[in-house]
Amino acid sequence: MSYRFLLSCVVALVIAWIASGETHVSAQQSAPAPAVSTPAPAPAVVRDANAYPPYPGPFYRGSNPKDPRLAGFYLHTGAFLYFIGLFLLWTWTAGWIDGDANSLKVRPDMWNSVVLLAGVVGFVGALCSPSFGIAFVVMTIGYAVPMGLYVVERNKRVPDSGKVLTRRHIRAVTIRLLSRIGVQIGSREQRESVVGPPIKLIGKSGKGAGEMDRSRQVESSKGYLAAKELIYDAILRRTTDVHMEPKEDEMSVRLRIDGVMYPAEAFDRPMGDALVNIFKVLSSMDITERRKPQDGSFRAEMEGRQIDFRVATQGLQGGEKMVIRILDKGSSAKTLSDLGMRKQMVEQLQEIVHQPHGMMITCGPTGAGKSTTLYAALQEIDAYENNIITIEDPVEYKMANVTQIEINSKAGQTFAGSLRSVLRQDPDIVMVGEIRDGETAKIACQAANTGHMVFSTLHANDTIAALFRLIDLEVEPFLLSSSVSAILGQRLVRKLCNDCKEAYKPTADMLQKIGLPGDKVDKFYRPPATREATCPTCNDLGYVGRIGVYELLVITDRLRDLIRDNPNLTAIKAEARKNGMLYMKEEGLRLVVKGITSVDEMMRVVK
Questions:
Q1: Which helix (H) or strand (E) holds 267?
Q2: Are strands 502-504 and 239-246 parallel, antiparallel or unpaired?
Q3: Cβ neighbours of residue 10 under 8 Å, at least 6 residues apart?
Q4: For a 10 Å CB count at each end of the chain, is N or C smaller?
Q5: pTM
Q6: Would you call the peptide bond into 528 cis, given omega within 30 degrees of 0 as the criterion?
Q7: Pair 297, 283: CB distance under 8 Å
Q8: Whose CA is closest to 322, among 333, 311, 331?
Q9: Which fold has domain 198-330?
Q10: Distance, CA of 26 to CA of 57 (rounded, Å)
Q11: For the segment 403-453, what is each residue's pLDDT rounded down to a tens digit?
Q12: What pLDDT, in 10s, does the model give residues 214-233?
């Protein structure tokens, strides 16, 4: 059947309809009028010639002609709201199609033109429609048809997990939206696959945006689910640092667990860059700056506790590297007894901590647990009876009833300047996060001599070297000898897994090398050489957690004389040995004999 035949049929029907209408009218005009009884005429109504005609009623067009309050309201409420809602949905969809088509390379120019043209025609046609029904159909077609055609084409180019408007996608979106308002549907596995692990990332409040604003900014970002999974997995594995390093075609990830780096599953480069941007937004960093180093922080809520994160970036030739330091307060030591020291050493430190004045220094390399030891020492002091003030960069753990000051180097705030100001706040105990320069060292020693107890950290290999490090910072020997009470050197070694460690008989050469008598050692322990089954306790690492190896130098009167008169390394070391000081290596061998750690681990950390 051709279109000409159809057109002829339509014209014939129109002519027949007109003709039938004219015949009906003419028939009515030619037919004789039936005999009808004429009613009696009504009495005439007399009207005043100067009076207005009767009011015919209000003029209505719009939502409800029966409501007098809507008289003259020309907009239909339902149609207007639908028009505005569909227009906003169309603008959002057009932006999504533009970004999606460009990322998938699905003819973005053509689809942008189609969506724009169809939307304009649909909305203009709806405005010109005489009824809401026609406007509804025109607007819906103008939005839905190009949207559906694009979805069909883009779904052909992506795997099943990336398809949209499928049953799986609609279920995932429903679970995600309902979970935001506290409604939980589906199984736990389904919720975690859609919403992610049970952890909430909270952004740092910065200029122009609050914590919740920054959190909402990244919730709809690409890779947000992967970011939550990365942080959640790192916390479960007792990670202290997450390293994201850009490669040519991927973003490699390494986790520092118990002081040792382990590789993790890498991300493809676009996803890795998206993760870096998410963490930068949460940390209140500039996402457009990729060459200069930046630092920031954010936090997370997990299983009823808060976890802090310190973030640092560095521009490289191939991209931007990011390191995330995890500060889990729930895993920190509470008291000195929890650090794994000998009972005699704990008692000595407790006496030093409760001295009315003096200075206690912890020394060691980065990541040796120096700050953790100082926090444990502060826990031994009654914070209600004493005014405790800390100066840190940054504040790692929050303590109740303790004044904690965070250094801001960008604003010109330094350890020395803050310490000088703090001494005018009537402190009993002052903790200085780190002695970095001679000015800070001199002020700390002067504070110790003027009735304050000072705690601080210093980068040095051992306790004796820490003394000479302070002298190198131009602290006078007489000032140093009268201010320092004790120096604690420390390292952290990994503890063997109790569920999978194996015993073995050490050789004579090994015992001679480490300096132990062969007749007093029966067996050592080490991680299993071969694994027959997976160990769920340590995840096949062989080690779980870390313990400290310490070296305590208590400054006696004889040592004060040696430091003040003739600071000689050999003489000071000999006097310290007379007082019963054990070297870190000797403390480490004690842990090896007890089966807490292995010989290889002790030799790796303590030289």
A1: strand 260-268
A2: unpaired
A3: none
A4: N
A5: 0.67
A6: no
A7: yes
A8: 311
A9: Beta-Lactamase (3.30.450)
A10: 37
A11: 999 887 777 788 888 999 999 999 999 999 999 899 999 999 999 999 999
A12: 677 777 777 888 898 899 99
